[in-house]
Amino acid sequence: MTRLPESLLDQLCELAQRLRSESEDFLEQHQDAQLWYNRGYANGMLLGLAELLGEQLPCGLQADDPTLLQGHEVMAWGKAYRHGESMGRKETFEIAGST
Length: 99
Known about the structure:
Elements: H1 6-22, H2 33-53, H3 76-96
Helix pairs in contact: 1-2, 2-3
């Protein structure tokens, strides 16, 4: 379990919340790979924070249900989501100094 400065945690939570708000309807927007990437990035941040902090609901947010991507994994937008998720988790660890 990692202890993050409160100001850093607040910034990360704010970014994750903003990305999720902006990508609320990502499932209906197959043509917008950036939207899917952003949603995945926010999810990766939440997964990373959950792991770092040992919390189920980091920032008070539930990570996306993995079944949401069923049937989308092989499509360009599903791959964008997974890439965003990977980068969001990786960069959250880097920012926290826990690579």
